[in-house]
């Protein structure tokens, strides 16, 4: 077994500490905070042990704090406003987000609003950018999926318009990626979040903003996911496997920070904005099980760097797109992912209608502009019909 090193990564000015017991490295930072709000969901912060460890450091340092534990999956614009109001009313000085992407994104969003004023929707639609000076945000990440601890984006849902999108909300100041905190992640969440990370590197490395840097970290991340997700499915308490999945998802965060995502995430956001019961990673797994072929055809070299890990006989040429799709679906089957959109109540007509909204919604424009191929009705119908 390779030694599981603890080390630092500086992306976008974040001081991210990666590795077992990395919270210890940020003791001084936590000790210097003034009445931070700890943002969490209902269970995982406690179950993972992260909340207890953060609270212990704060208490030993004499730092008073308040807890906001109302964060839910798929956070909304209104929920971010609620947290911002709570922060102001409690006279807080800084955020400590303990959770997965939903919790970190909620804290990022509320912090942008606290710092820049106005309405959350201004930031959501990109009318306003968060100011440079913001309250301190420490992100203690508990999943190996979103990479939100390493990037500047937050994803929110605006229910009134059935819109879900990522927007720049500002980097955390400090992040903690400790694989010990992911050992209690349930099996289905372990798969969903890993497929989310895999989708980040597939889309970032094939987007119109990609670069040799993004391609290199994407290939590395995908190789780790293909090697270690089956091990976590076998034994969820395999710390070495969790370490590398977390490493892959952190790299995925850096990859989308540089090259963003494209059609896979655009389509998934349309589905889960409409039906929030659909987990982000599950939606992505289903969509990419077909979309991956289109991506491979359009960007064979970049896709081959990722998928040849699954099938070394693949060649970087468009003719191998279908076999690349088979390799990807084979991997999903191997880790036990069998879900369909039908399981979440979607009908073929609904999926087609939702997919086509990507052509008309202004807020979804960048997801199609960054795709490495032309996105039209015909393509969307083809993908929808292969999924339901
Ligand atoms: Fe994602």
Task: Provide a descriptive summary of the structure in words.
This protein has helices at residues 27-31, 44-47, 50-60, 77-89, 101-116, 120-124, 187-206, 212-234, 239-259, 263-274, 280-298, 300-307, 321-334, 348-360, 365-369, 377-387, and strands at residues 7-9, 15-18, 37-40, 66-68, 95-99, 137-141, 153-158, 163-168, 174-177. The relative contact order is 0.11. The chain is globular and about 65 Å long. The protein folds into two domains: 7-181, 3-Layer(aba) Sandwich (Rossmann fold); 186-387, Up-down Bundle (Dehydroquinate synthase-like, alpha domain). The protein has 388 residues and is α/β, with parallel strands linked by helices. Helix 8 (212-234) packs antiparallel against helix 9 (239-259). Strand 1 and strand 2 form a beta hairpin. The model has no long low-confidence stretch (mean pLDDT 97). The strands form two sheets. A seven-stranded mixed beta sheet has the order 1-2-9-6-5-3-4, covered by helices on one side. Strands 7-8 form a two-stranded antiparallel sheet. The protein binds fe (ii) ion.
């Amino acid at each position: 077994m390779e030694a599981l090193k603890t080390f630092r990564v500086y992306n976008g000015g974040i001081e991210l500490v990666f590795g077992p017991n990395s919270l210890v490295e940020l003791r001084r930072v936590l000790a210097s905070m003034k009445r931070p709000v700890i943002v969490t969901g209902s269970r995982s912060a406690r179950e993972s042990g992260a909340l207890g460890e953060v609270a212990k450091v704060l208490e030993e340092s004499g730092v008073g704090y308040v807890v906001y534990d109302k964060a839910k999956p798929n956070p909304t614009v209104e929920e971010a406003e609620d947290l911002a109001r709570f922060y102001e009313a409690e006279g807080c000085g800084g955020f400590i987000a303990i959770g997965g992407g939903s919790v970190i994104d909620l804290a990022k969003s509320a912090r942008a609003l606290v710092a820049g004023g106005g309405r959350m929707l201004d930031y959501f639609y990109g009318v306003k950018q968060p100011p440079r000076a913001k309250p301190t945000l420490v992100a203690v990440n508990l999943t190996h999926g979103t990479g939100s601890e390493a990037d500047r984006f937050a994803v929110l849902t605006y229910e009134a318009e059935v819109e879900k999108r990522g927007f720049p909300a500002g980097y955390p100041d400090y992040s903690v990626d400790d694989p010990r905190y992911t050992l209690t992640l349930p099996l289905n969440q372990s798969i969903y979040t890993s497929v989310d990370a895999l989708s980040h590197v597939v889309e970032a490395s094939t987007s119109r903003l990609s670069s040799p840097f993004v391609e290199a970290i994407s290939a590395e991340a995908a190789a780790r996911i293909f090697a270690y997700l089956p091990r976590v499915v076998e034994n969820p308490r395999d710390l070495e496997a969790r370490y590398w999945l977390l490493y892959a998802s952190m790299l995925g965060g850096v990859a989308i920070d540089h090259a963003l995502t494209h059609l896979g995430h655009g389509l998934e956001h349309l589905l889960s904005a409409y039906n929030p019961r659909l987990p982000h990673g599950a939606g992505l797994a289903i969509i990419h099980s077909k979309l991956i072929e289109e991506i491979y055809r359009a960007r064979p070299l970049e896709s081959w760097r990722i998928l040849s890990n699954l099938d070394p006989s693949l060649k970087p040429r468009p003719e191998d797109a279908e076999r690349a799709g088979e390799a990807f679906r084979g991997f999903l089957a191997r880790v036990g992912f069998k879900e369909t959109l039908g399981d979440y109540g979607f009908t073929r007509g609904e999926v087609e209608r939702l997919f086509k909204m990507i052509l008309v919604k202004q807020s979804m424009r960048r997801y199609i502009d960054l795709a490495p191929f032309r996105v039209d009705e015909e393509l969307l119908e083809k993908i929808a019909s292969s999924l339901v």
